[in-house]
Amino acid sequence: MSATRPSIICLGFLLVSASVCRADFEVGRMYIAAATPGCQNGYPHDRIWEFDPATGSSRVFAELPDGMCGIISGLAFSPDGSRLITSSYVHSALVQIDGDGNASVAYGPADGVSGPGGTNNVAFDRVGNLYAVNDGSHTINVYPTEGGAPGII
Fold first, then answer.
1. The model's pTM
2. pLDDT over 50 (residue 102)
3. What's the rounded Cα separation, in Å, for the pair 99 and 80?
């Protein structure tokens, strides 16, 4: 694995290396996607946890609001390290989280994410294309670095 990319620990877990640390993402910390069954009926919202392996401490780094919350899975750092991308299965959306913990929808149904049940994992390639497993269409969507319509694998 390149020294310029975060190390993937396992699905939903990322370790930040020094070269991708931006904003408030901390070098050496792990970011973990914690999903809930749709943020309804008293369940807490989906959260991104920040874990410090050196001290054993953890904190909620980001909590997704109602319109984006719904069984998040998978995490990937953008190539420049400025944001995390996760998928919201219930809302058929790819959600981005900046270094301050602010969440926004990066891609949704209008961008090719199909429902019912949208994406459930994400990854970037070396040139910055975003790949998302699309459960609704049983395909993998490829969102080009330069923007535009997604391709399908």
1. 0.77
2. yes
3. 12
